[in-house]
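Recap for those who missed Tuesday's class. We walked through two folding examples back to back. For each one, the amino acid string is listed first and its predicted structure tokens come directly after. Nothing is annotated here on purpose, so try labeling regions yourself before you check the end of the notes.
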Amino acid sequence: MDAETRVHRIDKLGSPFDAGYANIRQLDELTMMYDAFFPKSVSQGLPPSDEGARRQWVHKLLTSGENFLSWSEGKVVGHCALVTDLERGDAEYIIFVDQPYRNRGIGTELTRLALARAKELGLTTLWLTVEAFNFRAVRLYRRAGFQFVDEGERERTMVLHL
């Protein structure tokens, strides 16, 4: 898949959505998703609640990682990123889906695209941190193959060996 290609899918409610690579050209539309995102600072202080910090965070993700977006009715409704360390052969994985679009298969599709890209890059490990009681996210990560590697009370680390 190249930077201009989008896959077309139907979510669990029968509504169409697209998913594909993102780059700095999508800074404004991705920032708009995070500006409207509720609640702010939902996961480990992300997305940042301060507008300037939020835009800077989005900019850094788009310029330093591998990013994927999902669109519904022309607006960004989901984002995931691989924050890669090519020397170590690993990446941190992050994902956010706008609340009204959760549990519809959009996060699963974004994860599928990110995993395929991680393999193309020759990465051997993906890791993430998740709040221990975020059961919906944990379910998504487990279905993708991530496994817990610690016993944290509030946050837990999960790893996927590719």
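Example two. Treat it independently of the first, because the proteins are unrelated.
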Amino acid sequence: MKILVVEDNEALRDVLARILERMGYVPILAGHGKDGLDKAIAEKPNLIILDMMMPVMDGWETARAVRANPDAKNIPILATTALSRPRELKSCLDAGCNGYIVKPFSVRNLQRKIGELLAAPIAKV
């Protein structure tokens, strides 16, 4: 299974790639939302892990663009964010993310969230 990681922080992106490899997934990496959108359409990953605060195209724009694209609209999206207020977290869901995880997060919590999203039936948008 392929998981697209869209994260502008190179160190965190690399750590996430190593964690995903250890979990048995094939990571695909993107450094900003535009690159992530292009890779989501081309690679059709099983899941997108999406940082919400990035340059070029932020996570909210990226999630909306994924949902608007017929080739990518059904890919589950896990938002990663340092924002933790309820309305900020709701904005991730409103943009089209299927779930979120607040930074910093544990590997166990990441694994649980990935498992939940990959096991859940994805509603057609």
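Answers for example two:
The CA atoms of residues 68 and 125 lie 9 Å apart.
Helices lie at 10-22, 33-43, 59-68, 86-94, 107-119.
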